[in-house]
Amino acid sequence: MSYPNYGPSPYGPGPQTHPNGTTILVLGILSLVVCTFIGPFAWSMGTRALREIDESGYYYDNRGSVQAGRICGIISSVLLILTVGFLVLAFGIALISGGFSSTSSY
């Protein structure tokens, strides 16, 4: 049994799914849990995907997961910057205070 074609939907096209939505969410979660180095990638991919979603004018049903992955990437990137800053500060203080001197005094 086939149904007649009534033409385009009066409500517009149905919801679409952004192709990178799941990837961005997985990268964001992994950047928080496993490796903070992939946080900036989730952040940049999420920003690009949100820009594409906003410019398209269509309704995307996975916009929330893109936003969540982007936010996780932002948090992970901030934690990465804080960690690197702390390590640079700690090594700088150790270098200035002579913590890396090669002479030993027994």
Concise account of the structure shown:
By secondary structure, this protein is an all-alpha fold. 62% of the residues lie in helices and 0% in strands. The chain contains 3 helices and no strands.
Report on this structure.
The chain is an all-alpha fold and 106 residues long. Helix 2 runs antiparallel to helix 3. The protein contains three helices and no strands. The protein is rod-shaped, with a radius of gyration of 24 Å. It starts with 20 loop residues before the first helix and ends in a 9-residue tail after the last helix. It has helices at 21-33, 39-56, 63-97. It has one domain (21-97). Keywords: Membrane, Transmembrane, Transmembrane helix. This is DUF4190 domain-containing protein. The chain crosses the membrane at residues 20-43, 71-96.
